[in-house]
Design goal:
With 386 residues, the chain is an alpha/beta fold. The chain has 9 helices and 22 strands. It folds into 2 domains: 185 residues, FAD/NAD(P)-binding domain, CATH 3.50.50; 116 residues, FAD/NAD(P)-binding domain. Helix content is 30%, strand content 28%. The strands form 7 sheets. The protein has a 5-stranded parallel sheet with strand order 5-2-1-9-19, with helices on one face. It binds flavin-adenine dinucleotide (FAD).
Length: 386
């Protein structure tokens, strides 16, 4: 009888895992029934929301219908949010009342945004961490006539560590050609750039920031509040005319409600490395953004992609009696920087005594071609589902 895999979440991690499971099983002529259950008919490519804010992409260009994966990759897709996980009984139940049983479960549910966890953070400022927010930021940038723009990272780790760095350079370029030269400051609670991306990429960004007159201030430690014209932190106050904010990461509610919070840090989910399994139920894999920090990984699409590949390989190994489980691969990351682009690479090694990956990152290349590769990669990813 065909083994059943349920994949919960139709974003980066869910699509990568379901696609690899079904296409590898089909290629080898092995029976495997893969069902992806998701909350939205839209498979989004979130980095393209930055382009929506800058006016170079429409919201419709940032997503493709996840249902098309049935035709393209051959697994089933159910659009109906999961409400309960019964790990003991190996079942998930959706809000619509469908119950699916499984031999293996993969969970990739991204992150929730804790905007209301700091006074004023939900009320003031703009962001492009969603399509509606991106349209609001687009309008705010278009109308901007002020002097001070502040990018605020309230808390670490947060969704996509390179975002404010890339966006600050893009915003500088956006205004420069309009003949405006606002003061741009990027505020981090600690030096996360070095911690997460290493000295090589930190040097790259600091050089670029110096060249383009962007201030990088890392070390305010704790955000106190945001008011309509300033950010108050433990280490000082920062006035702004335009605030561009990143969200604090929080565990998606359905995972919190079902007892899947990490015991050491409830902002994230339970998980153990190096195969991304649940500590008590090894047939359950957690590969979404919520599962990255507990095993020392970054909260971005590229590490999640790799985690989904490891989990899919591990399921194929157990289901079919031997399939070489891929090692956690180096993560090549493409970014924008002003008119140009950069390519950074992080290499990983598993540290069993810490239960985490160690990592080292460095700059591989810079130049305008890399910006083009990044843009084409996102569009090609979505085109494959159209
Ligand atoms: C502005 C921005 C720029 C970014 N830039 C980059 C970048 O340059 N490089 C990079 O690597 N990463 C980048 N990222 C981060 C990257 O997009 C995310 O880390 C990645 O998409 C997370 O993958 P995921 O599968 O965990 O979750 P997501 O892709 O967020 O998908 C979560 C899925 O879960 C579904 N879901 C939610 N609730 C339920 C439920 N109850 N039941 C079933 N399904 C549910 C949702 O519908 C969705 O399909 C960026 C993100 C943003 C916002």
């Amino acid at each position: 009888m065909a083994k059943k895999v349920v994949v919960v979440g139709g974003g980066t991690g869910g699509l990568v895992a379901a696609r690899m499971l079904q296409t590898e099983a089909n290629r080898m002529g092995q029976p495997l029934e893969v069902t992806l259950v998701t909350a939205s008919e839209r498979h989004y490519m979130p980095p393209l929301w930055s382009e929506v804010a800058l006016g170079t992409a429409s919201v419709d260009e940032t997503w493709a219908p996840i249902k098309n994966a049935e035709r393209v990759y051959g697994f089933k897709v159910l659009v109906d949010p999961v409400k309960t996980f019964d790990l003991k009984g190996r079942k998930v139940t959706t809000e619509g009342g469908t119950t699916l049983d499984y031999d293996f479960l993969v969970i990739a549910l991204g992150t929730a945004y804790g905007w209301s966890d700091y006074p004023g953070l939900d009320k003031y400022g703009f962001h492009n961490y969603g399509p509606e927010g991106a349209l609001e930021l687009k309008e705010a940038l278009f109308k901007f006539k002020g002097k001070k723009i502040v990018f605020l990272v309230p808390e670490l780790p947060f969704r996509c560590g390179i975002y404010p760095l890339e966006m600050a350079l893009n915003v500088r370029a956006y205004f420069e050609v309009r003949g405006q030269h606002p003061e741009i400051t990027v505020l981090y609670p600690a030096n996360a750039v070095r911690m997460a991306l290493g000295e090589g990429l930190e040097r790259f960004f600091l050089r670029r920031f110096k060249r383009h007159g962007i201030k990088y201030e890392a070390g305010f430690e704790k955000l106190v509040e945001v008011t309509e014209d300033k950010i108050v932190t433990q280490k000082g106050e920062y006035a702004y005319d335009l605030l561009i904010k990143s969200p604090p990461s929080r565990l998606p509610k359905v995972l919190a409600d079902n007892g899947l919070a990490h015991p050491g840090d409830p902002r994230f989910s339970v998980v153990t490395g190096p195969r991304f399994q649940h500590p008590e139920y090894p047939e359950v894999y957690l590969v979404g953004e919520h599962a990255m920090p507990p095993v020392g990984l970054l909260t971005a699409g590229v590490p999640i992609h790799n985690a989904a590949v490891v989990a899919a390989g591990s399921i194929l190994h157990d289901a079919f009696g031997g399939y070489m489980i891929p090692s956690y691969a180096p993560t090549l990351c493409f970014g924008h920087s002003f008119e140009s682009g950069f390519m950074g690479n992080c290499e990983y090694w598993w540290i069993p005594e810490e239960g985490k990956w160690g990592h080292a990152c460095y700059t591989v290349a810079t130049g305008p071609t890399i910006r083009m590769v990044k843009d084409s990669f996102y569009r090609a990813w979505l085109d494959a589902l159209r």
